[in-house]
Amino acid sequence: MSSPLSTDASPGSVAETPLTLSQRLKAETARLHDMLDQLVMSTQPFDNRENYGRFVLTQYLFQRDIESLYDDARLQAMIPDLPSRPRLAAAAMDLQDLAVVVPDDADAPAAARLAMEEGLGWLYVSEGSKLGAAFLFKEAAARLGLSETVGARNLAAPEGGRGAAWKRFVQVLDHNALSADDEDRVVEGARQAFHRFAELLRRSFGLAA
Ligand code: HEM
């Protein structure tokens, strides 16, 4: 683009282009993502079915945390294809395939009483995780013989492909009518969600906090 607004990107410049919400989310949670990526890999989730089962339990508990967000009227109005996005049922079926029982001591859904703004941040984390899941799905297939119909539904590509679903979600993020303060709350929600996933992963693998 030739506009001085978009070409002058020097730090602190008044003419700097403001980041879109999706750009902010990516930039402001990158460190948390890397931490989580390393934590996941440190648990060696594809070394055997037991480890993989613990990983899927984490996915299940996280999806259960955010289940009620899919019924939120404001999120539904904002995200037309929201009903196609949950993965709780997929994770539950995978747990059955793997004969993993959900422990009783699991606490209440963490995102149940969230406002729409924070909830959108949690959804960003869930939706973005479907991108990295391309790699995880391949590992589950190659090393454990699992598939989108047995044990690895929770990592399978959404209908129409990962890229298209992600692109539509980013469009929603970047064409919202939120105030700057509300966008801050979305980013805060995303941070909470990354921390929560890490907490659930540690719990599923019996790791110290
Ligand atoms: C070993 C584990 C993981 C690996 C290797 C991984 C890898 C990746 C990769 C390669 C991308 C970028 C894909 C692309 O741009 O096409 C990505 C994006 C993302 N991942 Fe992960 N990921 C992992 C785990 C997770 C987990 C557990 C979560 C959340 C629960 C997560 C959340 C996200 C999010 C939100 C994005 C989108 C970033 C953006 O805004 O562009 N990832 N991941």
UniProtKB/TrEMBL annotation:
Q: Which residues form a coiled coil?
A: none
Origin, by domain of life? Bacteria
GO biological process per UniProt: heme oxidation
Question: GO MF annotations for this entry?
Answer: heme oxygenase (decyclizing) activity
Q: Name one Pfam family in it.
A: Heme_oxygenase
The protein's matches in InterPro entries, at most eight in alphabetical order, are given as: Haem_Oase-like, Haem_Oase-like_multi-hlx
Query: Which protein, by its recorded name, is this?
Result: Heme oxygenase
Q: Which organism is it from?
A: Pigmentiphaga litoralis
Upper classification of the organism: Bacteria, Pseudomonadati, Pseudomonadota, Betaproteobacteria, Burkholderiales
